Amino acid sequence: MNNNTDMNQVAQKLLNKLALQEYNNSILETQLETLQQQNQQLKQENESLKNKKGGK
Questions:
Q1: Environment class of 48 (CB within 10 Å of its CB; exposed 0-12, middle 13-18, buried 19+)
Q2: What is the 3-state secondary structure (H, E, C) of the chain?
Q3: pLDDT tens digits, residue range 12-53?
Q4: How far is 5 from 11, CA to CA, in rounded Å?
Q5: Taking the model in full, what pTM does it have?
């Protein structure tokens, strides 16, 4: 019984770690999407400024 209890505790700790990693991955994916959108916007703004300078 003691060994079974120990294994259950180990399993629960591993599940908790997995849940935490999934949560962290979710946050990082959201941050990555935000940064990619910001990067695309900055690229467009940069291209727009290049075009304005080239047109002068």
A1: exposed
A2: CHHHHHHHHHHHHHHHHHHHHHHHHHHHHHHHHHHHHHHHHHHHHHHHHHHHHHHC
A3: 999 999 999 999 999 999 999 999 999 999 999 999 999 998
A4: 10
A5: 0.72
